């Protein structure tokens, strides 16, 4: 059985949401980051960055929420959370799956710290560009790949919910509000929110 190492009120919510969407059995292993449990050698063997979430699935172990989402969606294709490798949608799926950690999170750090980074050297371009690009993509909806909900929506939905609703770091836009509402209406999202709240 898969074991998800998690902590309340953390980025673990993406992995919890994904696992709840799959309907697969899994065990949640509370990893109390307030006591430094994520720095224990046995946990560092799963995620050497000492962050949550982490996942063990038999002999496989990995960290990083987007990587966990990608791994589970591919390892368990019956869940329908990822286009097949031969599907042309796979390219956009991968792009959007990693957009949250590659662009949204750095853009939020830029906004929070008011850090001036030239868009020509910032991997995410700029905060404005990040959210403008996402806004344009979400107008095609209802999901990032059109009619098909995927693990990419879990990463994007978690990132936008965090940025727009929880911490109000990004002003709401009609496409963001509608997308977050669609995500929040999913029973798996609601279960994940209750779990992640501790």
UniProtKB/TrEMBL annotation:
Entries under InterPro entries matching the protein: Glutathione-S-Trfase_C-like, Glutathione-S-Trfase_C_sf, Glutathione_S-Trfase, Glutathione_S-Trfase_N, Thioredoxin-like_sf
Record key words, sorted: Transferase
Domain GST C-terminal: residue ranges: 86-198
Pfam families on file: GST_C_2 (PF13410), GST_N (PF02798)
CDD domains xref list: GST_C_8, GST_N_GTT1_like
Domain GST N-terminal: residue ranges: 1-80
The protein's name in its UniProt record: Glutathione S-transferase
Organism field: Bradyrhizobium algeriense
């Amino acid at each position: 059985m898969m074991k998800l190492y998690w902590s309340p009120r953390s980025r673990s919510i993406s992995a919890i949401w994904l696992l709840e969407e799959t309907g697969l059995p899994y065990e949640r292993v509370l990893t109390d980051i307030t006591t430094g449990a994520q720095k224990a050698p046995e946990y560092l063997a799963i995620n050497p960055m000492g962050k949550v979430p982490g996942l063990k699935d038999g002999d496989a172990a990995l960290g990083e929420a987007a990587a966990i989402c990608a791994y589970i969606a591919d390892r368990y294709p019956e869940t329908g959370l990822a286009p097949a490798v031969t599907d042309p949608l796979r390219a956009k799926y991968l792009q959007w799956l990693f957009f949250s950690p590659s662009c949204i999170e750095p853009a939020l750090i830029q906004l929070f710290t008011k850090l001036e980074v030239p868009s020509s050297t910032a991997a995410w371009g700029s905060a404005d560009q990040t959210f403008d690009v996402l806004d344009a993509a979400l107008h095609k909806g209802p999901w990032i790949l059109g009619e098909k909900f995927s693990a990419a929506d879990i990463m994007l939905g978690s990132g936008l919910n965090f940025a727009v609703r929880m911490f109000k770091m990004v002003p709401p836009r009609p496409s963001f509000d509608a997308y977050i509402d669609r995500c929040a209406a999913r029973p798996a999202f609601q279960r994940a929110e209750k779990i992640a709240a501790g």
